[in-house]
Amino acid sequence: MAASITEIKRGLNKGEFSSVEITQDYLARIARHNPALNCFISVTDEIALEQARAADAALAKGEVAPLTGVPLAHKDLFCTDGVKTTCASRILDNFIAPYDATVIENFKRDGAVMLGKTNMDEFAMGSSNENSSYGNVANPWNTEHVPGGSSGGSAAAVAAGLAPGATGTDTGGSIRQPAALCGVTGIKPTYGRVSRYGMIAYGSSLDQGGPFARSAEDCALLLQTMSGFDGRDSTSAEQPAPDYSGALGQGIEGLKIGLPKEYFADGLDGRIAGVIETAIDELRKLGAEIVDVSLPNTGLSIPTYYVIAMAECSSNLSRFDGVRFGHRCEHPVDLEDLYKRSRGEGFGAEVKRRIMIGTYALSAGYYDAYYLKAQQLRRMIKQDFQQAFDDVDLILGPTTPETAFKIGAKTDDPVSMYLQDIYTISLNLAGLPGMSLPVGFSDGLPVGMQLIGNYFDEAGLLNAAHSYQQVSDWHLQVPEAFQ
Amino acid sequence: MSEWESVIGLEIHAQLATKSKIFSGASTAFGADPNTQACAVDLGLPGVLPVLNRAAVTMAVRFGVAIDAEIDHRSVFARKNYFYPDLPKGYQISQFELPIVGKGHIFISPAEGEHKEIGITRAHLEEDAGKSIHDQFPDQSGIDLNRAGTPLLEIVSEPDMRSAKEAVAYARKIHSLVRYLEICDGNMQEGSFRCDANVSVRRKGDQKLGIRAELKNINSFRFLERAINFEIERQIDLIEDGGSVVQETRLYDSERDETRSMRSKEEANDYRYFPDPDLLPVAITDEDIAAIRASLPELPEQKKQRYIDELGLSDYNAELLTASRETAAYFEAALAAAPEQNAQLANWILGDLTGALNKAGIDVSESPITPLMLTQLISRIADNTISGKIAKEVFEAMWQGEGDADGIIEARGLKQITDSGAIESLIDDVIAANPDQVEQFRAGKDKVLGFFVGQVMKQSQGKANPGQVNAMLREKLKS
To answer: Which of A21, A409, B177, B422 has an alpha carbon within 20 to 30 A of B7's alpha carbon?
Structure first.
């Protein structure tokens, strides 16, 4: 089963099958495959079927919203009214939000069905989905390998056909990297395009929600629903979203695409470089003009990112204190004991590491050297992109330096793990949109290509990816065990 | 003269009178049941985000314009990080490097004829924390988050004050100003207006500031004065005994009238301020500032100058009449009815009325004697219907609710006797009854005249016109 959202919409509208039927199919696949993959933290069967029945009733009346009856999965950091939202953390194991995130509200408005909440790295901190208090997620292409992270559950669920589309969030690559490692298409929009309201924060100035699906065409549909100004998020952009689906199919004749030389330098697996070059040839054949560009401060993006993201998270995660909601330790003897044990028991090792480093970076006497310095570098990284976009329409490169690694291979080496995000992280610092799409395989594992757009040019990204997907079938590949 | 000089700066937290909180739509009304006015944002639930209430910004700018402060086009909210159960997010949204209101100043008049300019370093917006309740549940503390997220304007002065009296004058001036500006109700009991005092001492002539202590938990102007005076004495005694002051936060205990150490500098938190990434910098344009400036009421300083220039009031009376918006409003309402009586009105308002109000512990806006009632009373003195002395009796009766001045004068028969015949017969009686004193007067002892006036007034039950009595007595005694 590898139906696309576009096909599901068509089938539902034509009455070839009902939303209840397709929802039951997906729920059955989840029941069958989730034990091996561990993509889902919560499966919301009852809610899904209730929403599917409502969708069928609406369809019968001809009341069709953009996603009426389409089943989807949501990363477990989007708050869902009445359904547990854990962030894959023990500290939120009992947390049920009394509100929906704006993204969830938008999907409800547009008629989508919620299959469940997907696994992730705890509080979105990680690149392998190994930092989850609900256990790691397996890569459907090889279950001994990681799916990437932090939105590993969503990427793996789409790759294995447990959902036709899913939401994710991307702070340093958390949509694009798992999309690449699982062979699916994923887009991180411009910062401010998708509301962060109800999306549990990791690094507030970097976090951005976005969709996973099989194709750019499907991503366009999901992004349409997710996008738009939201008065409840002060960083939300007051700019209407264009018609993403309508922008597809324009072709890329004459499109100028820049290759940053820093993205093809040491550290990139030669086999990945080969796969990407083949894809670049395809784009040339489609009429794109390929030129070299430079993003000289790329090497600074990892340390810059980790100072800013950790500083922000050290403050963002202070609210998890065992006082008002979430995990509270047994029998605290006093306030300090309550804080220390509730947080000590509730947070996993990587979360603690990042809180400690972030706290340090903001401390008196270190603030200028770390946080302020990082903000200066952030501006330089942004300027690199702005200069590059003076000359080109899109920037292209690999999404990751290597394909999915083995589970456990990097757990003792956080720095090597952090380097996984070398090509993705600078976009978050600059606030730019980027997407990853599958362009081939290396040793049986998918290779992702990253497209980077100018501010609010998600339509340009989707159009370019769609053009490529019209002449390739990498995005249609499904791992054998899940066909 | 003491060889010591005290140096005082104040941090005032004024709760801004917005209807909803600074970053959420929850109500700011005082006195609701615990936790009934706290929404998901105030509770710090995961995923929810702050959205700035622009009304708080406007109020802060009103204050800034009123103290002639620098107002930047860009101001930034920062997170102040520390853990406490009544601080739901584990950080307070405040301002650090780019406050909304920059350097400004205000004039105080700590005593008659004294004037001093006090610098204001900055004023910034921040959210209030909730309240911890330690005395209602055995072995546990309660938390009420109704107050969490209430907008505050923290007004930080320069260390320009040299006595508790000056500090109180400054605090009262700010209190008056925020009420004039209608940005704070000024209610100190409900915590809408709170003062912390930074106090240090140094030997006169020293340039370097002494080590300061920060005094907290002061909820009235009286306690502010007492807390500062206690602290000054404590620090001087400490140094004179060979000790030294340590930088610390001290709580004022009004029952024991003393300050007690709360936490030392070493125990102080590192707040790890950084710009809040959930909020955009606040943009304030020149047009915004101009519009706010145009919307300001007449401010106390302008009003005072007008009273001096146009009404000819003394500097001191003008200062007192403008000290609160309500007093000035009372004065102006009365003045409208009797423009020529401004000096009399000022005296009555600042004298008898203020005395009665203070005694009853009520505000001028609650006075049982309305401005028009007072005007009528003063008019009856001016037109010789009653004497100033009788007017005091009428005032007292009006205060007791017996009606207006004319009604009371009529009912009690207090109308002044101006009929010369009636006064003359009273004088004749008194002269006849006191031959000795008549002799004394005629022997050149002028002072005895006062005795005769007193006797005649007594006979008339105070109703005889004192001027007439005086003049007629002189005539009669000479003859």
So the answer is: B177
Give me the pLDDT at residue A2, please.
56
Average pLDDT over chain A reads 96
A185 pLDDT above the threshold of 80: yes
**CATH number, domain with residue A28:** 3.90.1300.10
Q: What percent of chain B has pLDDT over 90?
A: 72
Per the structure, how many domains does chain A have? 1
> Is the Cβ–Cβ distance between A181 and A403 less than 8 Å?
yes
Q: CA-to-CA distance for A473 and A465, rounded, in angstroms?
A: 12
**From the list B40, B88, B280, which residue is nearest A234 (CB)?**
B280
Give the DSSP H or E segment for B125: strand B116-127
Domain of residue A68: give its range.
Answer: 5-255+434-482
CATH no. of B420-478: 1.10.10.410
Distance CA B411, CA B425 (A): 25
Look at residue A99 in the predicted model and tell me its pLDDT.
97
Query: Does residue A75 have an active-site annotation?
Result: yes
Answer whether residue B139 shows pLDDT above 90.
no
Interface of B with A in 15-44 (CB under 8 A): 40, 43-44
In angstroms, what separates the C-alpha of B49 from chain A's closest C-alpha?
6
Residue from A9, A75, A108, A410 carrying the catalytic annotation: A75
**Which residues in chain B are contacts of A315 at CB distance < 8 A?**
79, 81, 90-91, 272, 274
Tokens at residue B449, please?
């005249």
Q: Where are the domains of chain B?
A: 4-291, 298-412, 420-478
Question: Is A467 annotated as catalytic?
Answer: no
Q: Any CB–CB contact under 8 A between B265 and chain A?
A: no
Alpha-carbon span A444 to A442, nearest angstrom: 5
Q: How many angstroms away from the CA of B182 is the closest CA of chain A?
A: 28
Summarised one tens digit per residue, pLDDT across range A137-164 is 999 999 999 999 999 999 999 999 999 9
Question: What tokens appear for B317 in the block?
Answer: 């009376």
Is A472 catalytic? The answer is no
Cα–Cα distance between A244 and A250 in angstroms, integer? 12
Q: Which residue in A324, A355, A293, A332 sits closest to A98, CA to CA?
A: A324
Q: Which residues of A touch B280 (CB under 8 A)?
A: 234-235
CA distance A363 to chain B (A): 5
Token readout for A223 is 């992004």
A11 located within any domain: yes
Instruction: State yes or no: pLDDT of B416 exceeds 90.
Output: no
DSSP A394: E
Q: Report the complex ipTM.
A: 0.96
Judged against a pLDDT cut of 60, whether residue B47 lies above it is answered with yes
A320 lies in a domain?
A: no
Residues of chain A with pLDDT > 70: what percent?
100
| % of chain A residues with pLDDT over 90 | 96
pTM: 0.91
Mean pLDDT, residues A292-296: 97
